[in-house]
């Protein structure tokens, strides 16, 4: 039988088995404030995507610094099965039950389960949309970037509490289903990678050999990312066939949360149609100085996203981490070439602590250049030949999104006792 709690403070929980308890979180968890005396423990990271993970596993390169802090002394100690919450992002599910012993940021909160309960059950429960909405409601702050879920507010929230045996069964059910879903996603992502490699190979062939059969070629006497091109083509430096706009970032003191304008200060989101990437709002005490026109190719110049590309779909100010490239002839042809060039550039700084591309490298990269009419023919050929690949990639990406939605729904139904296990 299913019962619905009518009490005003708990009715948001909706329906759940009537033999389950309802308790405040303060009766389920206690806050831990133990601190590291040496800072030598494993540093842990918290994300709404992956829960609690080892920070070192997210580093791009082995030589990257594991933290920007001068010392990790005083960081909060975490024991395996502790609940770790990023209180600034609790509203979007940035929390998890730690599979590791380690330390985490002093700005985060660490909680330990009380009594005969399974912490993993509550780890799943607290990441549901139901509880994230409640965390948002109890968080303090005016805008999302300033919301904080402090411990007193967290402890005041009610939670359903199944018997321990049912908690264990629910956890095992979710894990078993998640394993199947994660395997499906892994296979789909590998399929997408293979399709993308196929697409790049096709593009590389078109922009270095052309699309006309049996075309005579010439070897290049300069070392570059392609060995030869058709005899009637040229190889010109990027700076001679395009306009390259390098961003300039205003000083940090000109930023605030109530600014009027925005500047793109980090790598663009890879081919996203929804947004350019990470922008920060500006006070108008410093006017933006560099702008990317609509249709420009955005190229990330620094950091872990170096080489990332996007098409500028509006007129936007850009910071020093971004270059905007506009072809003097055919923009679509240049974009096709740069999808291959960026992989060549990326290979030159593999293993670097802080990957970056300076203006000298980008300016002087050689571009295979046929006549304008042939550029147009190549672009049309690429679009035709890659259309099927793009459709397959889009379908696979959509399948991943749908299975993620199914997973979230499966977890929500299971933790609330709405499915038979």
Explain how this protein is built:
It is a single chain. The protein is of the alpha+beta class and 421 residues long. It has two domains: 2-162, Adenine-n6-DNA-methyltransferase TaqI, Chain A, domain 2 (Alpha-Beta Complex), CATH 3.90.220.20; 234-369, Adenine-n6-DNA-methyltransferase TaqI, Chain A, domain 2 (Alpha-Beta Complex). It has eight helices and 24 strands. It has helices spanning 119-125, 129-138, 151-156, 164-209, 238-241, 331-347, 359-363, 372-415; strands spanning 2-4, 15-17, 21-24, 29-32, 44-47, 51-54, 76-78, 83-85, 95-97, 102-104, 109-113, 158-161, 217-219, 228-230, 234-237, 242-246, 261-268, 277-282, 291-292, 297-300, 309-311, 316-318, 322-327, 366-369. The strands form nine sheets. A four-stranded antiparallel sheet has the order 4-11-8-9, covered by helices on one side. It has a four-stranded antiparallel sheet with strand order 16-23-20-21. Helix 4 crosses helix 6 (331-347) and helix 4 packs antiparallel against helix 8 (372-415). The longest helix has 46 residues, at 164-209. It is elongated and about 80 Å long. The two termini are 15 Å apart. Mean pLDDT is 88; it is low at 1-6 and 60-65.
Short description:
The chain is an alpha+beta fold.
Question: What number of domains?
Answer: 2
Alpha carbon gap, first and last residue: 15 Å
Sheet with the most strands, sense and barrel status: 4 strands, antiparallel
The gross shape turns out to be elongated
Number of helices in the DSSP assignment: 8
Strand content: 15-25%
Report helical residue fraction: 25-40%
- CATH architecture descriptor text of the largest domain: Alpha-Beta Complex
Which regions contain 5 or more consecutive residues with pLDDT less than 50? 1-6, 60-65
Helix/strand-derived class? alpha+beta
CATH superfamily of the largest domain: DNA methylase specificity domains
Mean pLDDT: 88
Radius of gyration: 26 Å
Physical arrangement of strands within the biggest beta sheet: 4-11-8-9
CATH fold call of the largest domain: Adenine-n6-DNA-methyltransferase TaqI, Chain A, domain 2
How many individual β-strands? 24
